[in-house]
Specification:
Shape of chain A: globular
Distance between the termini of chain A: 19 Å
Strand content of chain A: 15-25%
Strand content of chain B: 5-15%
Number of helices of chain A: 21
Number of strands of chain A: 22
Distance between the termini of chain B: 56 Å
Structural class of chain B: mainly alpha
Radius of gyration of chain A: 30 Å
Number of helices of chain B: 10
Largest sheet of chain A: 9 strands, mixed, barrel
Helix content of chain B: 55-70%
Structural class of chain A: alpha+beta
Oligomer: heterodimer
Largest sheet of chain B: 3 strands, mixed
Order of helices and strands of chain B: EEHHEHHHHHHHH
Number of strands of chain B: 3
Chain lengths: 710, 173
């Protein structure tokens, strides 16, 4: 299945001559997968490039710019080095050069690969600041693929960058995407269900994918090979300009896997809360009169004529009809409510309504395709690329926008005709024709909703004026009246959150996921990070017999507590059938800075492989125990043992229960994992109904593993 | 008796340097292996060549001694990461000398880096680029213009449009 991407007929070569030369800098053959390993020399090892040619091509930039001085031939002023100790350059001698363009010419006289080396030492903001200095620099920076490739290499997964490049206009666009979604990478959690709600956001293919690790038992191949069971939650795909704009929510309805397209409202660089919301936009925002374009992001295409003309046409069609969404949020008037201000039931109903309207069934070939690279297969890149293209096409057909009048009607908030007339609205369709049109399409739906709706009788508060907080539905109506179309949207923002021992305190009624602070091992805090383990000894092996061993995932972090440095093991996922202790409880806390004064002996002599157990150190501490009800666990004394091979084990003193842990890399485990079916869309994102059991185990057999292949 | 290599600058001046000094440049090393010992460098002016030779002389003296354990460990560590620059200069005296060496104005620095890139003297390229990057990092466009004496030829509307277009880069820390 040789898939070649050819965008050559999309973005024609730029008029400026230097781009014709820089096109040599891009490999002319399609990049084989996994080939682009970056060596210790940052200069890319393109086989076709003659290094001498590059160095001597330093004049190619210069030809495009007027009044340049010739590089290497300074006016013969006879100055010695000692006199040139000023930071600001002034031209000496002059020649044809004027003082003004002298500065930019310095940069423009550099060969592209030297510019790329400078770029590797800068952040994207510095590069953009340089581009803002003058037109010449802007053209040079925007057009240089190498410069932006150097930036991408600092951000994204190195081997696939050239492959991803083919889906966007330029490396600059790719850099924009990588910086945009970078704050989302990591682990996100929610308090509910109490067994654990862990969503890992990892790189997909020109996308990031959020996948949930579901509560499960230890797999037949042990901790590191599992396979780990996971279910997809959402994806964010890049568009051709590198904007992280295409959002897909995963869900399952009526026994079929579905995708729910939406938009990405914004991603804060220091996001710690990920919210699923409904956005309201005006017609002008979604279908702008003039297509939005990036004037300077001209791409370079160096690929030869495609062998597969049909495929190239498919790519070009999918890109030229791109509707670029208005990336900035529309200005909000102070008085109108935002989604977060709406009451919980309205938010839930709105989300479910929009999801039901934008639902796309997943075609069978797409259902089996991987979401991210798996460890098992080598040709995943092709399948991932195909899947990406198909998702883009699906997004084009249905970008996920719904006429808000339909929502208004269905949710019963449009009955306040008095309120409606008081609010100044600006939409092209008249209210009556709009209602008539949408009414016929949602009659059946409306009946369903009326029957299900448990909200108070609508006529009772018919005198509510718009904007007043008296009636719940008036607020919803006002929210919807802000625009013409509504759709699902994802917003990553920063909120002030308190936390208790590495576990954030979360709102119970927000459709949100919360960032688990990442703790990385540093000197003096070597055990920080995510660990996995089970109860019982020997560690990491499934027990004989029917019932498996519950798999636990814990976040180990350090804290100063009462003058000691302690190691806290926060439970983030528990694989039992019915939860024992609240999500985010500390399974144990140990005084890691000192050895146990009265060291307990490790209860076992040998481990699973009949090797002698070697205790490196032991630390006293406390382990979780039943306390006053579920909410308030207690603690009992125990000892933490640091064993050989990087194993940790905590032994409760009285019961001699043992929790043994190994460090895990969740992203790596997912690559070897197994996909399981998901829940309906909105609860798949945030399951807000209080639950103590495994709500994610949608398939019949729980103790075994799902027989469905990935 | 050290073997001497003759370098001829763009304006015709000749410079005789010891072989080990000249061999700091990988290009010169390759050329000398095939051809003779007179190497014309038409794109490098005398002024720049003098500075480059000065750098090479200083670093040849250091490189001729076997790597100390600390510097070889640093070299091993830096080359094991996926992206790295040439091995960092570990000798503090040499680092101090380097810092003094790059106290030059912008045009001289750029001349040197172009010559060093042409001659493939990796350490010198890295040193100069590090200095240049430091003069750019964290600065607004106006400050960079002042630093490098660049004239702003954008109209205010164009500049505003560009800023908006690039706003994604300024959002993230």
């Amino acid at each position: 299945m040789g898939v070649t991407f050819h965008w050559s007929n999309l973005w024609p070569l730029h008029l400026f001559p230097f781009l014709a030369v820089t096109s040599l800098l891009v490999p002319v053959t399609p990049f084989p997968i996994g080939h682009a390993r970056i060596t210790s020399d940052i200069r890319p090892q393109y086989p076709l490039i003659n290094h001498q040619l590059l160095s001597n091509s330093q004049t190619v930039f210069s030809d495009a710019i007027n009044g340049r001085r010739e590089v290497g031939a300074l006016p013969d002023s006879g100055e010695v080095r000692g006199e040139e100790r000023s930071d600001f350059c002034r031209p000496v001698g002059g020649g044809a050069m004027s003082a003004e363009d002298y500065g930019a010419a310095l940069f423009l006289g550099l060969p592209d690969d030297v510019l790329a080396l400078i770029s590797a030492r800068l952040r994207p903001r510095d590069l953009c600041a340089v581009a803002l200095c003058c037109r010449g620099l802007n053209a040079a920076v925007a057009a240089s693929e190498k410069v932006w490739l150097a930036q991408c290499q600092l951000l994204g997964p190195l081997p696939v960058l050239p492959l991803w490049r083919r889906g966007v206009r330029s490396y600059r666009a790719l850099c924009r995407f990588l910086t945009g979604v970078a704050p989302l990478l990591g682990i996100w959690v929610h308090q509910n269900p109490e067994l654990g709600n862990v969503v890992c956001v990892v790189w997909g293919f020109l996308s990031v994918v959020g996948v949930r690790v579901i509560p499960q038992e230890l797999g037949p191949l042990g901790l590191h090979a599992g396979p780990l069971l996971w279910a997809p939650v959402f994806e964010i795909l890049a568009d051709a300009n590198g904007a992280s704009s295409r959002f897909f929510l995963h869900g399952r309805e009526s026994g079929e896997d579905c995708l729910y397209p939406g938009s990405v409202r914004s991603i804060d660089s220091s996001s710690n809360v990920l919210l699923l919301e409904v956005d309201v936009l005006s017609k002008a925002s979604i279908f702008p009169q003039k297509p939005l374009h990036l004037a300077s992001a001209r791409s370079i295409s160096a690929f030869p004529e495609p062998k597969d003309a049909n495929f190239a046409k498919k790519c070009s069609r999918s890109n030229t009809t791109e509707i670029s969404l208005f990336t900035e949020p529309p200005p909000q008037s102070l008085s109108s409510p935002t989604f977060t201000h709406l009451p919980f039931s309205d938010r839930r109903r709105l989300l479910e309504l929009v999801a039901s309207k934008v639902r796309l069934k997943v075609p069978p070939d797409l259902a089996a395709a991987p979401l991210f690279e798996r460890a098992s297969s080598l040709d995943d890149a092709d399948r991932l690329a195909d899947r990406w293209l198909e998702l883009i096409d699906m997004f084009k057909l249905n970008g996920g926008w719904v006429d808000r009048k339909a929502a208004d009607l269905v949710l019963g908030s449009a009955e306040y005709t008095i309120a409606e007339s008081r609010i100044t609205m600006d939409h092209p369709l008249s209210a009556s024709t709009g209602k008539r049109r949408s009414f016929s399409s949602v009659t059946g739906y409306l009946k369903q909703f009326m029957a299900r709706s448990s909200s108070p009788s609508k006529s009772s508060s018919g005198n509510a004026s718009g904007g007043c907080g008296k009636s719940k539905h008036a607020q919803l109506h006002e929210f919807l009246c802000k625009g013409d179309f509504i759709g699902l949207s994802l917003r990553a923002t920063h909120m002030r959150l308190t936390s208790y021992r590495a576990w954030p305190n979360m709102h119970e009624s927000k459709f949100a996921l919360y960032k688990l602070p990442s703790h990385v091992p540093v000197t003096g805090r070597e055990f920080a990070g995510v660990w996995g383990g089970t109860f019982g000894w020997p560690p990491g092996q499934p027990s004989e017999g029917k019932s498996g061993k519950a798999l636990f995932f814990l976040l180990l972090s350090y804290e100063e507590l009462e003058g000691h440095l302690v190691l806290i093991a926060t439970k983030i996922l528990e694989g039992t059938h019915y939860v024992l202790h609240p999500n985010g409880s500390a399974m144990f806390i140990a005084k890691i800075d000192e050895e146990a004064s009265e060291p307990e002996a490790f209860p076992w002599e040998t481990d699973g492989e009949s090797l002698q157990v070697e205790v490196k150190s032991s630390h006293s501490g406390e382990g979780i125990a039943n306390g006053y009800g579920f909410r308030y666990p207690g603690s009992k004394p125990g000892t933490l043992f640091v064993l050989q091979n990087g194993l940790l084990a905590f032994v409760w003193k009285d019961s001699q229960s043992i929790l043994s842990l190994q460090r895990v890399e969740l992203q790596q485990l997912l690559k070897k994992g197994e996909r399981v079916p998901v829940l309906p869309p909105i609860v798949n994102f945030a399951y807000l109904t209080k639950s103590y059991s495994n709500v994610f185990a949608g398939f019949s057999s729980y103790s075994g593993h799902s027989s469905s292949s990935n | 008796m050290a073997k001497m290599i003759k370098l001829v600058s763009g304006d015709g001046a000749e410079f005789e340097v010891e072989e080990e000094v000249a061999f700091q440049s990988k290009i010169i090393k390759d050329i000398v292996a095939d051809a003779d010992d007179v190497i014309p460098l038409p794109t490098v002016s005398s002024k720049v060549l003098i500075q480059v030779i000065e750098y090479c002389r200083k670093h040849a003296a250091v490189n001729s001694f076997p790597l100390s354990p600390s510097s070889s460990a640093a070299a091993a560590a830096s080359s094991s990461s996926s992206i790295s620059y040439s091995k960092p200069v570990s000798d503090p005296a040499l680092r101090a000398w380097d810092n003094e060496f790059v106290k030059l104005n912008n045009s001289s620095l750029f001349d040197i880096v172009i010559a060093a890139n042409y001659l493939d003297i990796e350490e010198l390229v890295d040193l100069v680029l590090e200095t240049v990057a430091d003069r750019i990092k964290g600065k607004q466009a106006q400050e960079i213009r002042r630093q490098f004496n660049i004239e702003n030829d954008f109209t205010p509307e164009e500049e505003e449009a560009l800023r908006r277009e690039n706003s994604w880069a300024f959002q993230n820390n």
